[in-house]
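sanity check this:
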Amino acid sequence: MENVFRSERLIYRAIEDTPEDDDFMHTIQADPVAFSNSDNGLLAPMTRKESGAWKKSVQTNKLIGVIICLAPPPSNPALPVDTKPAPPTPIGCIALTGLKPGYFQHRNSYISVDIIAPYQRKGYGSEAIKWVLDWGFRIAGLHRIGIECFSYNAGARELYEGKLGFEFEGRKREVLWYNGGWHDLLSFSMLESEWKNKVPES
């Protein structure tokens, strides 16, 4: 069986209780632009306690929650054999919501994904979402996977619906107050059968 925790350019690893992972997860949450595009909470400076609680939630309350890493370049045969290989570079986080007790039978989950600013618009978010769809349907046995975005995030809608093939399900009208105006919450989903049609080799 192939390494299910790799895709073409990316590696997906567990979130560890290390200072490095604490710092990285805080970096994700402390970015006000990224926070505004992925969280409907009140925008305010992020404390270490708050980002730590979010990190713990991703570790313990999700069906899966991983750090997205950019794979290191292939080893250079010209370098000495004892040269230490470059480590993978953390660039984001992706998770599927956990299945609550008493609701497992519905096999329904939602994606959350964040890519840090220097690595956005390079196709890594799309690659990671394709990976988590594969994991969710093929490994976890899910029936439906949903994803949401805010109406002011036009790029996310184009990615989910236009490029990845999620079906638009509808909107909650004017449920978000942001930057001086009201905005909608847009919902999308993909069923296992739809995913299989898009990925016939699966």
